[in-house]
Amino acid sequence: MNDATAFGIGFIHQELNVVDNVDIAGNIYLGREPLTAGPLKLIDRKKIHADAMTYMRRLGITAPKTTLIRDLPIAYQQMVEIAKALSMQTRILLMDEPTSSLTLSETEILLKITKELRESGVSIVYISHRLSEILQIADRVVALRDGKNAGKLTREEISHEAMVKLMVGRDILYRKPSETPGGDTCLEVRDLRTQRYPERKVSFSVKRGEIVGFAGLVGAGRSEVAQAIFGVDRRVGGEIIMSGKALPGGQPRVAISEGIYLVPEDRRHTGLVTSMTIRENITLPALERVSSGGFINGARELEESERLSKEMRVKCSSVEQRVATLSGGNQQKVVLAKWMALKPKLLIFDEPTRGIDVGAKAEIYDLMRKLAENGVAVMMISSDMEEVLGESQRVVVMHEGSIAGFLDRAECSEQAIMRLAVGHHEVPADTK
After folding, report:
1. How remote is the C-alpha of 18 from its chain's centroid?
2. Tens of pLDDT along 301-314?
3. CATH topology for 2-138?
4. Which of 1, 207, 328, 340 is most exposed, with the fewest beta carbons within 10 Å of its own?
């Protein structure tokens, strides 16, 4: 890596490569810290902070430079990774899913900087499953499928359809959801107040068989609502009613027992135990299903994990493969497989397709639709506008801890969502 850096090669990783107990400035210059003059060489913190501000301003990072990385949302951690690469004055920049955690406005900033770098003579390898970004910035496209070169496109040949065909061998289109989902109310949230936004009240409902998209900018409070419903975060106030039953706060075990499951945004750290195998991860939430007399029945556990792995089309050598060695898409399938065994009533997806390939995206969308068709209520939190518009039957837009508005299928558009997301509030109907 040091040799690559010396030759002017920079790399922005798909999975965050930050040190969470070090501040923003320290992460940007980690391993390259300037030292003070004189015989006693110490890290020059003043220079690090001053230089870091240049890249923070360029990327629109508004948090104080002394903020610890662990106190930042995932999107801002990703921006710090980008700032680190820019600070190395690279001549060849490899970008692996650099916008996977970014909102539209943050993505626009990054694409603008990418174009500026190209114009200044920097060569860029831009790896992304967000095809709209490729359309904007690519001079050439190389598509990979199953580890092999599936084809190339010149600037004139690049189109959404051409890229999808090369990547998966067929067309993949969003299927228009039903505008009139059936079913009774599954989840009702009344005046929910989260720890991050204790003064803001959130109220909404989700029906059985309905896919409700949650849109908004980073920091809008969507994930906090999801975590409060699941019980991993204690709520400050309000009620969560599942199938007519009020649930206590801060108790994930109760949420799970009632059929509420969360697919978290950060699958590696909060959705999986990456040091364990696929088998162990899939059966972890429901060990009683594969146990007898307090002991795990190995044969039953193997059979159950193989069945679910096959149903979810997890690409692996066997269920004994460590989860850490899987691709992002296959890791997400393992997260889903562990909940499928428990027959969910409400499944909450937080950024369900972040950093995964087009083929895996299509499979997850198919799963969402099948779940909804079978009467499962689905909440989908996403920063991917195309995903929100393509998969939601109804959209809840949040802004700074409050619901800015509800949009029915017929009302949904990128403009309508963004208008609400940036603070042009409507008066929300009562849990519309």
Report:
1. 17
2. 999 999 999 999 99
3. Rossmann fold (3.40.50)
4. 1
